[in-house]
Design brief:
heterodimer, A: alpha/beta, Rossmann fold, 6-stranded mixed beta sheet, 9 helices, 10 strands, globular, B: alpha+beta, Elongation Factor Tu (Ef-tu), domain 3, 4 domains, 8-stranded antiparallel beta sheet, 12 helices, about 35% strand, disordered N terminus
Chain lengths: ~325, ~500
């Protein structure tokens, strides 16, 4: 994927990229403001990097915010061990290309006990390999602020989350007792052990993310684009069937379909959609006529009522 | 409502099915409009926002399905899901059936995108309304057509005005339940326009609405109310203006200093007012040092100008001492600097605002110590300011701010960024107030500091008595008494208490 180099742009005001439309520009400005504010106010910030499209936008904004300096904090990837292979390859490519500091954490206890989405169910698996793993990683790094790519339009409980979202020393979120957040004046005062999750993309919608990726030519994992891939149907979802650890259950069969992914998580829990969208234009026009939300493909949102709020209270991003 | 079965069935067809809408490629030509919705519990506020999201197709099928599932038996007579459930995302709220916090919602039309702050109507959550209003360009106030304006309406309009909102829409909801009574609508909108005028708001649009039936929200309600020829709610929102911070001179609160190498030193921040271009002379406040802008750096290119809202890196022509919290401003249009300011604030926490307590004040990127002296509290019922020594939660008050170090502000009326601040309680680290600067306190006031000494301007006899008291006997070094006539003293005190 082509990418423009800031160094040449700096000396080339006749950039070929058309200026951002005012809507995306306003969102970009807000996100950059948040990045700079957190980087200045906290001692040990970190950026949660999930390798998905929102993370790609987040990373791009971080690079913009601190230009001409480098991104002044590490990226943290909580690796469950069950991510799509293409995601891991993409991650390593980005780190190399943009000279980033990357911290990868896997819950060693969970891995040792062989906690998998197949054996433990999506709820318990997510709790151990994502939520608990994230807490471990944040504690280990003594991070006092963590950037995340969450958007308020994703899910009902996120609609009320602050841009600086306060966490207790055990990483809990108390939705009833959030700090008021007025104007763009953020309160970053915390005690030792407490932390803040900062969400620069709070006011973005899914369409905004895609338009911005297109306008800024941001690299993303190829799984977002339609291609003929092996799949297996399970629990009403089409799961990518390329990892040898995926064992077919009785009655299941592998087949090839032209599919893509709207969101990327752990491959056994992420459903593909049938799609012919092979370009960003295709994706955007597909999105504009879409009748289901992006999280529809996520098993973890549905495993119990109010499930995302519950996960968030416990420290899930 | 007991609509005949056949009518209900007919409505089912049109209303439940997802509105068919041309999904033309969105060509946005303007910034997103931020709005706040306010109304009492029963005005149907959540239904209105739900209707906006539904009719602009911001709700997807799976969300609608879970909405249908969650609504269970609570569907209304039209067979529509309970729109309130779209918004009341937190379980606590679902259980209590009320909205307890600010929720942000997003929708767009082919003309513009919108960010809605949905805030609770309950009085005890004034603080949330202030939060939502702080960033809003426009306020939608809801009233029930059968009930008309409430004390609550005045309260919300007042708070919205104080927070700087200058465009109001009055949605006279449930108009269907008055049989689309035109005179009722006109009476309510007339009353509201009077109220708005008394608050100094001139941009008011009143719209008769049925949020439940979707009349005059996104689609027009001409079939039911041919007498109404005005715009729908969405049309007003599409045409509303976003706030502009370009009325005052250039302002850049410095968030951080970028020094990636020996050769580069830039000041990073978001332009909070006016515009800037290379060659402009600027002053760094509070130090007062002067420099010229040489470059405006962004990731994409070196720009020849930046305007309010732009996140930039500014390079100056000389080595000056600039650090986080400083304000870079146009040399010919400077903000106010001083140790004492007047402000209005909203108390946000249970402990209220205590007189004389020292708080952290954060404005822009600057955080400094401040002492807050409450002067008066707004009676939202009457609109009068009553004397107050402390401010309880949800109170709106006038206060005096005293700083140890130079503070830099614009009046909030002139600049919603450099005129705004929050107060942080150093004991709890919680945000306890949101405030707006009204003016710098004149240095010729009755009490002020000069070289760290307090100057008391008092009538001669009172001054003598005071200096004889125990309190002052031991603190002569700290205070100086200036003897003035009684008339002069009254004049000075009047200016303090204004």
């Amino acid at each position: 994927m082509p990418h423009t180099h800031p160094e040449t742009e700096l000396h080339n005001p006749q950039s070929t990229k058309p200026p951002l439309d005012p809507h995306l520009k306003a969102l970009e400005n807000e996100a950059i403001h948040i990045f700079r504010e957190v980087a200045a106010e906290f001692e040990r910030p970190v950026m949660l990097y999930s390798i998905g499209k929102d993370s790609s936008v987040l990373l791009h904004l971080a690079r913009k915010a601190f230009y001409p300096g480098r991104v002044p904090f590490p990226l943290l990837h909580v690796d469950t061990g069950w991510k799509f292979r293409e995601m891991i390859a993409f991650r390593d490519e980005m780190v190399e290309k943009y000279d980033l500091d990357l911290v990868v954490h896997t819950n060693a206890r969970g891995a040792a006990e062989n906690v998998t989405p197949f054996t433990h169910g999506s709820a318990l698996y997510t709790d151990i390999m994502k939520t608990e793993a994230l807490r471990q990683a944040l504690d280990a790094g003594q991070y006092d602020a963590a950037f995340g790519g969450a958007r308020r339009d994703e899910e009902a409980s996120r609609a009320k989350e602050r841009i600086y979202s306060f966490r207790t020393p055990d990483h809990r979120w108390d939705p009833r007792n959030q700090r008021p957040e007025l104007w763009n004046v953020y309160n970053g005062m915390i005690r030792k052990g407490e932390s803040v999750r900062a969400f620069p993309l709070s006011n973005w919608t899914e369409v905004d993310i895609w338009r911005y990726i297109q306008a800024e030519e941001i690299p993303i994992v190829p799984l977002y684009f339609a291609k003929k891939r092996p799949i297996v149907e399970r629990d009403g979802m089409m799961i990518l069937a390329e990892d040898p650890r995926l064992e077919l259950l009785p009655g299941e069969a592998k087949r090839e379909e032209v599919i893509r992914f709207r969101t990327l998580g752990c491959f056994p829990l992420t459903g593909a959609i049938r799609s012919n969208a092979t370009t960003l234009d295709d994706i955007i026009s597909e999105l504009e006529t879409a009748t289901v939300s992006e999280r529809q493909g996520r098993a973890i949102d549905r495993d119990q009522a109010g499930s995302m709020e519950k996960k968030k209270r416990e420290g899930y991003f | 409502m007991t609509a005949p079965a056949i009518a209900t069935a007919a409505l089912d067809e049109t209303a439940v099915a997802h509105p068919l809408q041309e999904t033309a490629r969105v060509a946005r030509d303007s910034r997103p409009l931020r709005l706040i919705t306010c109304g009492s519990v029963d005005d149907g506020k959540s239904t209105l926002i739900g209707r906006l999201l539904w009719d602009t197709k911001a709700v997807k099928e799976d969300q609608a399905a879970s909405l249908q599932r969650d609504s269970k038996g609570k569907q209304n007579d039209l067979g529509l899901p309970d729109f309130a459930l779209l918004l009341d995302g937190l379980q606590a709220e679902r259980e209590q059936g009320i909205t307890i916090d600010v929720a942000y919602r997003y929708f767009s039309t082919d003309k513009r995108s919108f960010i809605v702050a949905d805030t609770p109507g309950h009085e005890q959550y004034t603080r949330n309304m202030a939060t939502g209003a702080s960033t809003a360009d426009l306020a939608v106030l809801l009233v029930d057509a059968r009930v008309g304006l409430l004390e609550q309406t005045r309260r919300h309009a007042t708070i919205a005005t104080l927070m700087g909102i200058k465009q109001f829409v009055l949605a006279v909801n449930k108009i269907d339940l008055t049989d689309y009574d035109r005179s009722r609508f006109e009476q309510i909108s007339h009353e509201f326009k009077e109220l708005a005028l008394s608050l100094g708001v001139r941009q008011v649009t009143a719209i008769p609405v049925s949020a439940l039936k979707g009349e005059n929200v996104v689609y027009d309600g001409r079939a039911s109310m041919p007498w109404y020829e005005g715009p729908t709610l969405i049309e007003v929102l599409e045409l509303a203006t976003t706030r502009s911070a370009q009325t005052v001179g250039f302002r850049l609160p410095v968030q951080r200093v970028s020094r990636p190498g020996e050769s580069f030193r830039g000041y990073q921040g978001t332009v909070a007012g006016g515009s800037v271009k290379p060659g402009d002379s600027v002053v760094i406040l509070p130090s007062g040092m002067v420099a010229n802008v040489t470059k405006i750096v962004t990731f994409d290119l070196v720009r020849n100008a930046a305007v309010a809202g732009d996140a930039i890196t500014l390079v100056l022509d000389r080595q000056v001492d600039v650090s986080r919290g400083d304000l870079i401003a146009a040399i010919d249009s400077q903000p106010m600097t001083g140790l004492a300011f007047d402000a209005q604030l909203v108390a946000l926490q249970a402990e209220g605002i205590q007189p004389g307590k020292r708080y952290w004040l954060k404005s822009g990127s600057r955080r400094q110590r401040v002492q807050v002296q409450p002067i008066s509290q707004l009676d939202l019922k009457s609109g009068k300011w009553n004397h107050a020594d402390e401010l309880p939660m949800n109170a709106i008050g006038k206060v005096h701010l005293s700083f140890d170090e130079q503070a830099v502000f614009d009046a909030y009326e002139q600049n919603r960024t450099t005129g705004a601040f929050i107060l942080i309680d150093p004991d709890t680290n919680n945000t306890v107030a949101g405030g707006m600067i009204t003016a710098k306190r004149a240095a010729i006031g009755g009490i002020h500091t000069e070289d760290s000494r307090v100057i008391l301007s008092l009538p001669a006899d009172l001054a003598d008595q005071l200096m004889a008291t125990e309190i002052f006997a031991g603190r002569r070094e700290e205070a100086e008494v200036r003897r003035v006539t009684a008339a002069k003293a009254i004049e000075i005190i009047d200016t303090i208490d204004e």
